[in-house]
Design brief:
The protein contains 22 helices and 28 strands. It is α+β, with helices and mostly antiparallel strands. Helix 14 packs antiparallel against helix 17 and helix 21 packs antiparallel against helix 22.
């Protein structure tokens, strides 16, 4: 049986206060009507239809040729059943997904899927088993038992067992490959223990109650805990002589056996990105990788079926097209070169371009709501050592409030998002349990006079031409923002640059590579950074509040690197922070081990309050529409009414099961696949 659910239920924990709207024609958004209740897929754990062992004709030919065992021998004893969004699909074809040529592979993952221990349920609120068959948390909240799905096989046909979890814990989290243990596997600074109960049962054991572990395992982290021991051990020093491995590494121009292991045996979010021989549990396995594309083919041992017993995925191959820059990306979208684009590449400001080319490109453009608390936010570095005069200005909360009042958020919403974005600070979104309207709206009024008054109060006088403000040392008040997200082509950034100039701040931007950002941001080498504030829902704010708690020494945070370093190293390095920063850390630590949900909310709201009043980051607008490109013959794409949302908080397309997308006949020429 299926159940009905309301939009309110869909968005309760996913983080959307208002629904995504389909924008029409070439202009602004259509008027939104109340949504009818939408029929949703059944919860995975409630499905009981028996798998019938139907398969793709491509694999049936290989079975007939003796190259593969029958499908019933390739499926587990209890396959996971995926209820399709609309109908049982048909097999065949190859679909194309765009991905930036430089940067992460997140856009391309829509085309190849990712598989973790658990996953976000199709209701967008629940944690459901995925690779595993079931889980159980002990009464005291300290032990998590994972029960594996018997008969699951890697893409090379080798059984998936508890050995693969043990290999991750014992051999990949050892001191050679992981000298610093993952923070998400620690409570009160103590790294988790692992127990291999039997071939199909493992336990994660923590020193404190750990209510958030299942959320971690249902998101990004859960895709990085299972590796094929039978394959990976041939490149690991625990199983092969180190000298032999070092020789292999040298032959491949690598500097250590660890580099060799990562290149040959490390799955990235469950996906082999370098080595075609590396087995995967995902729906597709890597065939080839070039400078222009990646080609993936279906995994013959994939362990999921649809409700009719057909082995998934429906589509035989996935072609990931690497696109160099914004212009090339947009050209690919409007010319119909991609079959689905559910990543960050489409520019919301180009919505009229995408809509006006639908017929020519044989696609449909829809607008899913982006679950972001600020599409762009500014991070003044309060520990910037290269210019202490500028650092001291950034440390004055009056300056940060002045910058906030200089921003015309209503204009940003109108010009960049057709009036559909919400002006607010960089904070959680309204559907989040930790949201307080008072803090979302604090200091967001566009008031140039108030901004100038605060800057005058600080003694930042105008120059003789009344054009730029001067610092206490007589130098012009100017700074450079370093960014890896191409702000030069970003309407929001261009508007903000003008707003800052209007109050006498001379701000420029320098676009740098992601690799350089990863070095300079945590290295305290950047005066001010910018980023989009995601992690603003009940899914991720408790797990990774990196814009609001001093714990992240990564490439997204430049607010106070030295203070963060002091906190995460227990004062061994960095600079001792103000007590308020220490308090934020303590609040989060308590939040992670508190099983009382009311107390969790209380702690989260206190974190939100402190950040709003101190304004360590300065937000712009939230919850904008995000363009999604869908080929006209791509089936089983969830609709806006079924809860289609966009954002890292939902791990992009993860809840929607990309393995059940299919290509309707007739195929476009480019969609033909000949193995």
């Amino acid at each position: 049986m299926t159940r009905k659910f309301t939009r309110r239920e869909v968005f309760r924990l996913s983080g959307a206060a208002a629904t995504g709207a389909v924008l029409v024609a070439c202009g602004g958004p259509a008027a939104e009507e109340p949504a009818a209740e939408a029929e949703a897929p059944m919860a995975e754990e409630a499905m009981a239809e028996e798998a019938m062992g139907k398969e793709s004709p491509l694999l049936a030919k290989r079975v007939a040729a003796g190259d593969l065992p029958p499908v019933e021998e390739r499926l587990p004893l209890n396959p996971q059943v995926v209820q399709t969004w609309h109908e049982v699909g048909t097999y065949g074809g190859m679909f194309t997904v765009g991905n930036p040529a430089a940067g992460t592979f997140h856009s391309g993952r829509t085309g190849v899927g990712q598989e973790g221990v658990c996953r976000i349920g199709t209701d967008l609120t629940s944690v459901v088993p995925n690779i595993i068959e079931s889980f159980n948390i002990s009464a005291d909240g300290r032990e998590l038992t994972l029960n594996l799905r018997r008969g699951t096989k890697w893409s090379d046909g080798h059984p998936h067992t508890a050995d693969d979890f043990e290999f991750w814990y014992v051999d990949m989290l050892n001191d050679d490959l992981a000298p610093s243990k993952p923070g998400w596997l620690q409570t009160s600074g103590n790294f988790m223990s692992f127990e291999r109960v039997d071939d199909y049962t493992v336990k994660f054991i923590f020193t404190d109650p750990y209510p958030f572990i299942l959320k971690y395992l249902a998101h990004y982290n859960g895709t990085n805990v299972v590796y094929p021991k039978h394959y990976g051990k041939q490149f690991h020093a625990s199983y092969v002589d180190v000298e032999e491995l070092e020789a292999q590494a040298q032959e491949r121009s690598m500097d250590s056996w660890m580099a060799l292991f990562i290149n040959m045996a490390h799955l990235d979010e469950g996906i082999p990105e370098h080595n075609p021989d590396l087995p995967t549990l995902g729906p597709y396995k890597l065939l080839e990788k070039t400078e222009t594309h990646w080609l993936f083919e279906r995994n013959p041992y994939y362990w999921k079926t649809d409700q009719a017993g057909n082995q998934l995925p429906y589509i035989d191959a996935s072609f990931i097209k690497l696109l160099q820059d914004r212009e090339i990306q947009d050209a690919a979208f409007i010319s119909g070169e991609v079959d689905i684009e559910f990543g960050w590449m489409p520019n919301p400001s180009n919505w009229p371009l995408y809509k006006s080319n639908e017929e020519q490109g044989e696609y449909i453009a829809i607008a899913a709501q982006n679950l972001t608390g600020s599409v762009l936010h500014f991070q003044p570095n309060q520990t910037y050592e290269a210019d202490t005069a500028l650092r001291d200005i950034f440390r004055d909360v009056r300056f940060r409030i002045a910058l906030s009042h200089s921003i015309n958020r209503d204009e940003i919403s109108e010009l960049a998002f057709f009036g559909r974005a919400t002006p607010q600070q960089a904070t959680v979104i309204p559907a989040c349990s930790f949201y307080e309207e008072e803090y979302a709206k604090l200091n967001i009024e566009y008031d140039v006079d108030k901004a100038n008054g605060l800057l005058d109060e600080m003694g930042l006088a105008w120059d003789s031409n009344n054009e730029w403000r001067l610092r206490p040392d007589g130098e012009r008040l100017s700074w450079t923002i370093e960014s890896g997200i191409d702000p030069q082509s970003n309407t929001v950034w261009q508007l903000c640059k003008g707003y800052f100039a209007a109050v006498g701040c001379d701000v420029s931007v320098k676009t740098v590579t992601g690799e350089l950002i990863s070095e300079r941001y945590p290295g305290n080498q950047v005066a001010m950074g910018i980023w989009g504030a995601d992690k603003c829902t009940d899914w991720l704010f408790p797990l990774t509040p990196q814009f609001w708690v001093p714990y992240n020494l990564g490439w997204e945070s430049t607010m106070y690197p030295l203070w963060t370093r002091w906190i995460v190293t227990d004062g061994e390095t960095g600079e001792e922070p103000p007590d308020e920063l220490k308090l934020l850390w303590d609040l989060w630590q308590e939040m992670k081990v508190t099983t009382d949900e009311a107390r969790q909310v209380e702690l989260g709201k206190e974190i939100v309050r402190i950040n709003a009043e101190s304004m360590y980051v300065i937000g712009t607008v939230a919850l904008p529409p995000h363009p999604v490109i869908i080929k006209d013959n791509l089936g089983n794409m969830p609709t806006i009414e079924q809860g289609l949302l966009f954002g890292w908080d939902l791990y992009q397309f993860y809840p929607y099961h990309s393995e059940q997308l299919y290509l309707k006949q007739p195929l476009h020429t480019r969609q033909e696949y000949n193995a």
